[in-house]
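queue> holo job accepted (adenosine-5'-diphosphate)
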Amino acid sequence: MQVSQDQPISSEAPLQLLLFVDGRPKSKQQVQRIRSYLKELEADYHFELQIVDVGQQPYLAEHFKLVATPALIKIHPEPRQILAGSNITGQLKAWWPRWQAAVDTYLQLQTNLQENEENGHVREPKSSIRSVAVSAELIRLSDEIFRLKQEKEKLQEQIQFKDRIIAMLAHDLRNPLTAASIAMDTLQSNYNAEKGAFERLTPKMTAHLFKQARSQTKTIDRMITDLLQVGRDHDREFPFQPQKVDIGKLCLDVLDELRDRYTAKSHKVKKDIPKDLPNVYADPERIRQVLINLLDNAIKYTPESGYITVSGLHRTTQKVQFSIGDTGPGIPEENRDRIFENHYRLERDESKEGYGIGLCLCQRIILAHYGQIWVDNAPNGGAWFHFTLPVYPN
Ligand code: ADP
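queue> job finished
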């Protein structure tokens, strides 16, 4: 008998056995027992036993669809046979004479084939441990290909997302850039260098144009700073997986989850989500968080029997705007930027439970999608929260 471990699996022996083991101490003892039993059985022909550690060769175990170890498998001669369970030696004892007989038949067949070969016949390829190893390797490789394909799809999605975002940002940057250019062109074309004065422009208009140019360049600067910050966040603690998301449906799902809360306050929900609202390019879990936070606030701050409105709008070719309105007290104009700061709460609402972190999280998530989030007041005085997300390309 030849026992091999950690060797390339290949054998020409007429009887080929594989013994699958794992690292547990109990199975080590069982393996010892099987090996010494096989030694006692020593046949009058060469046979080979290979020990396979399932931990190291999981694909080989998968190939044989093994569910337990130890397991002894007769690979050759065919048909394949698996002995498993606690009493492998007992089973082996019963099968050994039959295996011997199978080997005898095989050897006899070989001799006949050899004679035929000498007469010009070709021998069929025989099943062996080597062919098993090859198919186990194939399983491993196809698993690997599957994993790589998925990874490639994910990366392609991310590249597409970035392309889309670049188009959207270029579009967004163009607005303040155009406004600043127009202001500067007007100033330049009215400037008389010899006189050192602006002609055809009143001092008030001149001042206004300078202010306009300055404020638009500041806007561009702020957009670029935000953009760089988002890029840094993506790399660090804020990973997200953008994909195609039906935001209207996602919002209706979230509303369903919150149904008990708003029916308890007898709120009515108005839905204005166009059927042809495009899908957005976003991380569904993150956007769910945004919707939950905004709807939760709308319910929290709206008195009994009020209205909550959800509405979607295809704002530009690249952007979808989603809005959540309520009939609560609204947000005073002077606080509209600050409520997105971490831990910021209106004094008015200090008695209500909350930590002032919900809106800050919403802003981080929306900015990570290169979108915008803001609040204004609805005509009825309630709060109207809006956010934008990039459209998913068709
Ligand atoms: P909180 O846990 O306090 O609700 P948020 O960050 O979600 O924290 O909100 C910050 C503050 O903004 C709230 O404390 C509240 O004063 C105000 N606010 C948020 N949503 C609304 C709303 N829909 N109506 C009125 N005020 C709101």
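queue> Residues 1-9 have pLDDT under 50 and may be disordered.
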